[in-house]
């Protein structure tokens, strides 16, 4: 059986779907999660604790796949957020489980935050239009995680998981719709807008700190998805086409 933390999140939900389609035994992380029969853990640091990994190992689990961030290998933004992922990786290494770490670029699903603006005006107003990342489709992250959970040869490895193409924020808006535009505004305006919408301060801190650095130095890229899955990674344009309904006026 495979224990999935963060089963309702973007990666966890898709991993659950893939594993269920394969007839794999599944368990979602709940307080307290069931450990009997668990052989492997898909671990999302924001949905689990180091103690969960230790207990899984004590009950006979053999391996863990950690969903971490590319910022650990190419530091950008506020160091406190990098420290969260670093601590999760250290916990996996200390757990006694065979570990594999996925250092993920920003998820394509993050751009769903643009949907209200796009539906209302056709314009995304944001900071750092030229920030460059190789945004990854969260479905590819889940597919890599499921593959690594189920086959040998990945223990002790750390993989950089990105999309296939570096894109600016403006490029991504155009990929969602050729008629759409990105209008650059100040970081402070974005921050105040997010706070006014009721978001906690850590959200704009995390977003704007990373984008500021990516505007100076592009985020990393890799071919790991294709190497592990034996097929090309999905492009951001493919992700946008699959989610077109979310951005269309209602």
Describe this structure as you would to a colleague.
This protein is of the alpha/beta class. It has one domain (2-247): NAD(P)-binding Rossmann-like Domain (Rossmann fold), CATH 3.40.50. 43% of the residues lie in helices and 16% in strands. The protein has helices at residues 10-21, 50-58, 79-94, 115-121, 138-150, 169-176, 187-196, 202-216, 224-229, 236-242, 244-247; strands at 2-4, 26-28, 40-43, 63-69, 98-104, 123-126, 132-133, 157-161, 167-168, 181-184. A 6-stranded parallel β-sheet has the order 2-1-3-4-5-8, with helices on both faces. Helix 1 packs across helix 5 (138-150) and helix 7 runs antiparallel to helix 8.
| Name of the CATH class | Alpha Beta
**Rg over C-alpha atoms, rounded to the nearest angstrom:** 18 Å
CATH superfamily: NAD(P)-binding Rossmann-like Domain
Calculate the mean pLDDT score and round it.
92
Structural class, by secondary structure, is alpha/beta
**Beta content:** 15-25%
Measured between the Cα atoms of the first and last residue, the distance is: 42 Å
| Helix-strand topology string | EHEEHEHEHEEHEEHEHHHHH
Q: The biggest beta sheet, please? A: 6 strands, parallel
How many domains make up the coordinates? 1
Spans with pLDDT under 50 lasting ≥5 residues? none
């Amino acid at each position: 059986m495979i224990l999935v933390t963060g089963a309702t999140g973007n990666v966890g939900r898709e991993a659950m779907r893939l594993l269920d389609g394969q007839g794999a035994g599944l368990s979602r992380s709940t307080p307290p999660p069931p450990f009997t029969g668990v052989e492997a853990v898909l671990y999302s640091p924001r949905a689990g604790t180091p103690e969960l990994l230790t207990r899984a190992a004590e009950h006979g689990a053999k391996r863990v796949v950690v969903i971490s961030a590319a910022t650990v290998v190419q530091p950008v933004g506020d160091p406190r957020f990098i420290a969260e992922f670093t601590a999760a990786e250290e916990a996996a290494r200390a757990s006694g489980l065979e570990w594999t770490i996925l250092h993920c670029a920003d998820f394509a699903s993050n751009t769903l935050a643009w949907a209200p603006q796009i539906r209302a005006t056709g314009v995304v107003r944001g900071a750092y239009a030229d920030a460059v990342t190789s945004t990854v489709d969260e479905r590819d992250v889940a597919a890599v995680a499921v593959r690594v959970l189920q086959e040998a040869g990945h223990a002790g490895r750390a993989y950089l998981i990105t999309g296939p193409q570096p894109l600016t924020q403006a490029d991504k808006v155009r990929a969602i719709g050729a008629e759409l535009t990105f209008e650059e505004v100040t970081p402070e305006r974005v921050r105040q807008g997010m706070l006014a919408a009721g978001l906690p301060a850590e959200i704009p801190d995390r977003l704007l700190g990373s984008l500021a650095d990516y505007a100076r130095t592009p985020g990393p890229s890799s071919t790991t998805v294709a190497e592990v899955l034996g097929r090309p990674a999905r492009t951001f344009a493919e992700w946008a086409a699959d989610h077109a309904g979310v951005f269309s006026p209602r």
